[in-house]
């Protein structure tokens, strides 16, 4: 309690130090300190914090006299220059206290342990607190370092997508960004996602809520080997095919990636898996198939999609990685003469548009016309891009392996 008392004494005598105390009342182990800090937080929203205002707030809220308790803590010794140390020690004490509580709960539980809840509690303990308030000087120096690093690199400013055309448009994948790719069924959006994952040279997590892990593996092997997906399904393979499949599997095994394929996964479960993958494996990017199939707790379809979109963006920011997510497009676009999707065609478009840093739509005219001259043509239409221009880039579609590559012009 020594550090908790020192924190409260510092604030009660120097209210301007409150912003430096990056804690919540739950981070205090002592219940009296919890109540006092919670009162300080509430008082600070409307009136200046001092001994009298905090005591009055607690007296009115509890119906008890807090004068002696608060005054006693306010008179505890403290040092203004040591506030960061107090906060760090208090947080460490709280972590150890919570860990002991979790272990005691598991040890004495007569019922089946809730593994998911236990894992979340432990993962929350492992998360390091991030400093969200940064001086302008530090912000500018960090930005300048990023520019300098990009200028020295022979490639995009962010993590390369593996597609020169997309790198040119986006500048690569950027940490903390949410990138959404929308399309109607049969356009090949899952194929594009797997092509992006396969060609991106980074540790990755694939969240596949629709397709099982073995299907994901088969499609990646088909893309990498050039052996058609139909041949794989029928097992109609020549000796040369087998050699190609073997070589492709060896090459893919060198890439570090993980697949989470729980059907009907919630955004909470996905966040949990992402945190674990970041902590345990150091993932650098996450690919999600797809937004509208992820479950949420909110009521109403629009609210559910909003919760999922916000959840994915929060994962990107919290873990400081790019998140690339697919999205379904409403069928209304097929009633137009020009069937290319627009932002308003996204299911739950408002929330997705607001949270995403970039939004693109995959379109293949062949799906509607079956014009053989257009079978291999694909368009990726960027309608939102915080890092650069919007517009259309062209990709080549490989129907045999269900994959995409840069257009021949690149």
Task: List the keywords.
410 residues, alpha/beta, DNAb Helicase, Chain A, Rossmann fold, 2 domains, nine-stranded mixed β-sheet, 16 helices, elongated
Task: Give your account of this protein's structure.
There is one protein chain. The protein has 410 residues and is of the alpha/beta class. It folds into two domains: 2-125, DNAb Helicase, Chain A (Orthogonal Bundle); 156-406, P-loop containing nucleotide triphosphate hydrolases (Rossmann fold, 3-Layer(aba) Sandwich), CATH 3.40.50. It contains 16 helices and nine strands. Strands 3-2-4-5-1-6-7-8-9 form a nine-stranded mixed beta sheet, sandwiched between helices. Helix 14 (301-319) links the parallel strand 4 (285-289) and strand 5. Helix 10 crosses helix 12. The protein is elongated. The protein starts with a helix and ends with a strand. The model has no long low-confidence stretch (mean pLDDT 84).
């Amino acid at each position: 309690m020594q550090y908790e008392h020192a924190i409260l004494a510092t604030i009660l005598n120097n209210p301007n130090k409150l912003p430096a105390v990056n804690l919540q009342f739950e981070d205090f182990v002592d219940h009296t300190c919890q109540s006092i800090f919670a009162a300080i937080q509430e008082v600070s929203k409307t009136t200046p914090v001092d001994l009298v205002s905090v005591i009055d707030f607690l007296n009115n809220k509890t119906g008890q006299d807090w004068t002696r308790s608060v005054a006693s803590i306010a008179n505890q010794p403290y040092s203004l220059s040591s506030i960061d140390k107090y906060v760090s020690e208090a947080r460490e004490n709280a972590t150890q206290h919570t860990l002991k509580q979790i272990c005691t709960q598991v040890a004495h539980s007569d019922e089946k342990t809730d593994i998911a809840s236990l894992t979340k509690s432990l993962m929350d303990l492992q998360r390091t607190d991030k400093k969200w308030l940064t001086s302008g000087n530090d912000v500018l120096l960090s930005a300048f370092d990023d520019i300098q690093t990009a200028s020295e690199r022979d490639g995009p400013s962010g993590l390369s997508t593996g597609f020169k055309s997309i790198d040119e448009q986006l500048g690569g994948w950027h940490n903390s960004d949410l990138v959404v790719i929308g399309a109607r069924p049969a356009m090949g959006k899952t194929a594009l996602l797997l092509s992006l994952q396969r060609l991106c040279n980074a540790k990755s997590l694939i969240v596949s809520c629709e397709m099982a892990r073995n299907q994901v593996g088969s499609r990646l092997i088909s893309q990498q080997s050039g052996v058609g997906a139909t041949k794989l399904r029928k097992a109609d393979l020549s000796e040369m095919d087998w050699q190609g499949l073997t070589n492709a599997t060896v090459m893919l095994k060198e890439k570090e990636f993980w697949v989470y394929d729980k059907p009907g996964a919630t955004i909470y479960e996905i966040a949990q898996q992402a945190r674990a993958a970041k902590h345990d494996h150091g993932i650098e990017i996450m690919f999600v198939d797809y937004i509208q199939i992820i479950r949420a707790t909110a009521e109403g379809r629009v609210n559910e999609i909003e919760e999922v979109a916000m959840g994915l963006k929060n994962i990107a920011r919290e873990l400081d990685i790019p998140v690339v997510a697919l999205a379904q497009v409403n069928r209304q676009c097929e009633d137009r003469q020009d069937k290319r999707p627009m932002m308003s065609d996204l299911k739950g478009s408002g929330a997705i548009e607001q949270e995403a840093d970039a939004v693109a739509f995959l379109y293949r005219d062949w799906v509607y016309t079956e014009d053989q001259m257009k079978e291999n043509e694909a368009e990726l239409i960027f309608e939102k891009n915080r890092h650069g221009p919007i517009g259309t880039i062209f990709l080549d579609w490989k129907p045999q392996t269900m994959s995409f590559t840069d257009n021949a012009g690149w």
